[in-house]
Specification:
With 583 residues, the protein is α+β, with helices and mostly antiparallel strands. It contains 21 helices and 20 strands. GO terms for molecular function: peptide transmembrane transporter activity.
Length: 583
């Protein structure tokens, strides 16, 4: 996440007046004139749910749009009705029928109907870009994660057979059973779009005549991203390079009406400025910069509340691109000490050297203040399938040195290298981790050089830029609560990161395919243990340690707590804006 410019007093006052004016006479409940201020270092790439696949965007989209089903309270497994009031599946688990909620309005004033749900899911299947999470809903409904450009067997008939309205009932048909299907529908990327509004502003018209033109269409800057219309408790007021503003939707259908009238997310890249604003009470939530900052600069200060030891279902690791694209982080493009060849990381000993050079204990001590533990695999240890019997990789300079001496037939050690690695601008913990890695790598051999580069979040995640990166922090917050969402995402050659890493491992793919096709949990656990061992041996990632979630907020904010915290929500507080109040 990130941000670029701080509002001055005049700009902030003007914005507050604008919000007050556009909502004059509203009745959004107690505290209707209040404003929630959130400051982050990240930009917000999109507001189109059809391509939302990052937490910066997701925290806004999940408050503007709603899905058919959602997670109940803090549970990761129990689902409850949202825009669908009830559903039933056939005995084979291959057909679902959803009864949809009546009396729901979109922000545009249009009524929510089955046609909107049908349009939304068809649009996701049609567009299904590499920047979106539509691959996993496509995999469930069409049997393939690809779009029609990459898989020519996808036809309009297959899409319409998979998603259709039977009167007012939404019918979804799957080619085979998927135990995680309902959980996948809770992901905000399946947020229901106002189809009439979308078509009116120039989005895909939903017809067979034009569907092929929309396949793989880039939605990051779509018309819908600029002018969203959902059924959520908040609607967009405006978005620019430095802020997003939203206001309570007065016709929201839910029993829980928003107590806070306005929400402003500001891009403030300077950590010191965010902290100062927070301590003065000018921001209610901020991107603090990690546990040490909270402990040393925020905890115990007037007006500051800290919530700690919360579940963390994020997995993260430094990924190593095995075929870096031309124009990327290659330097000279040779093993001459001035750069690296495109396939530098395709040698497993290079990867093993980087893994053994990362000092996990020091990172836990310095960044996580001793909390958390090393992980052996990019799967949260709270999830089924995590093998606690497998030891995590150890920091061992001698092992790293031996690996680098073997790499590329000894050329790496003899000639040296210069590699540029990137982190999200403003992310202090990422920067610290990379500085730690840089120090240890360069200490092994004076011919080794690691350059650390800060880049905008939207630049790093864009699918066209990813192939040019040598190493970035690849993190994952689950789309749905099943181990496959992590394992396929990180390790399958057809997953989200596999194509970005140019990592193809037939043995790994076979194990993953088998694990996701069985409902026998003991068998799945056994397969995931094999996958973890294979992944560790092949050193695809420098695995970051687990860390309990901790965040701060101003103590005049209510609705924040362990009982309401759900890590499936993108917003830091683990809940929706509508559940918060401000005194």
């Amino acid at each position: 996440m990130k941000r670029n410019k701080i509002f001055g007093a005049v700009a902030f006052t003007t914005l507050a007046m604008t919000l007050a004016a556009c909502n004059n006479g509203g009745n959004a409940g107690e505290g209707a004139g209040s404003t929630l201020i959130i400051q982050e270092s990240a930009d917000i790439p999109t507001l189109d749910p059809g391509t939302t696949y990052d937490t910066a965007s997701g925290q806004v989209v999940e408050n503007l749009y709603e899905t058919l089903v959602g997670y109940k309270g803090s549970s990761l497994t129990e689902l409850e009705p949202l825009l669908a009031t009830e559903w039933e599946a056939n005995d084979a688990g291959t057909e679902y029928r959803f009864t949809l909620r009546e009396g729901v309005k979109f922000h545009s004033g249009n009524d929510f109907t089955c046609a909107d749900a049908e349009y939304t899911l068809r649009r996701n299947l049609v567009t299904n870009t590499a920047d979106s999470g539509n691959w996993f809903i496509s995999e469930s409904l069409l049997g393939t994660p690809a779009n029609a450009n990459d898989d020519k067997s996808i036809t309009w008939q297959r899409i319409t057979d998979a998603v259709k309205c039977d009167g007012d009932v939404l019918v979804l048909k799957l080619p085979k059973t998927d135990p995680a299907f309902l959980a996948k529908l809770a992901y905000i990327g399946q947020g229901i779009v106002d189809s009439k509004h979308a078509i009116e502003i120039g989005e895909w018209d939903g017809t067979e005549a034009t569907w092929k033109e929309a396949v793989g269409q880039d939605l990051m800057g779509s018309q819908l991203a600029q002018k969203p219309s959902g059924t959520g408790a908040y609607k967009l007021v405006g978005k620019d390079a430095t802020s997003v503003t939203a206001t309570a939707f007065e016709e929201y259908w839910g029993e829980q009406k928003p107590s806070i009238k306005n929400v402003i997310i500001q891009k403030v890249p300077e950590q010191a400025a965010r902290i100062q604003a927070f301590l003065k009470g000018d921001a209610d939530f901020i991107e603090e910069g990690g546990r040490p900052i909270i402990s040393s600069q925020l905890a115990g200060k007037d007006g500051v509340a800290v919530l700690d030891d919360l579940p963390n279902t994020v997995a993260a690791g430094f990924s190593m691109n095995q075929n870096i694209a031309q124009g990327g982080a290659l330097g000279s493009g040779k093993l001459d000490g001035q750069g690296i060849p495109a396939n530098f990381f395709s040698d497993v000993d290079v990867r093993r050297g980087f893994v053994a050079a990362f000092d996990v204990p020091t990172y836990i001590e310095q960044v996580q203040e001793g909390k958390g533990a090393a992980r052996n695999f990019l799967l949260p240890d709270s999830f089924p399938g995590y093998d606690t019997n497998l030891a995590a990789p150890e920091f061992n300079p001698e092992v790293a040195r031996a690996a680098f001496q073997r790499a590329w037939g000894g050329q790496v050690w003899e000639n040296g290298f210069t590699v540029s690695i990137s982190y999200r601008a403003g992310a202090q913990t990422q920067q610290t981790a990379m500085e730690l890695l840089k120090k240890n790598i360069e200490a092994l051999n004076p011919k080794f050089r690691v350059n650390i580069v800060a880049k905008e979040w939207s630049e790093l995640i864009k699918s066209t830029n990813a192939p040019k990166e040598a190493m970035i922090l690849s993190a994952w917050a689950p789309d749905y609560a099943d181990p496959d969402n992590f394992v396929t995402t990180f390790y399958a050659s057809t997953g989200y990161y596999g194509p970005r890493l140019n990592a193809k491992d037939p043995e790994m793919d076979a194990l993953i395919t088998e694990a996701r096709s069985t409902t026998d949990q003991a068998k799945r656990d056994e397969l995931y243990a094999q996958i973890a061992k294979r992944a560790q041996d092949q050193a695809y990632y420098v695995v970051m340690p687990a860390s309990p979630t901790v965040f701060t907020y101003r103590d005049n904010i209510s609705g924040v707590g362990e009982a309401t915290f759900n890590p499936m929500n993108a917003f830091w507080a683990g809940t929706y804006w509508k559940n918060l109040s401000k005194s």
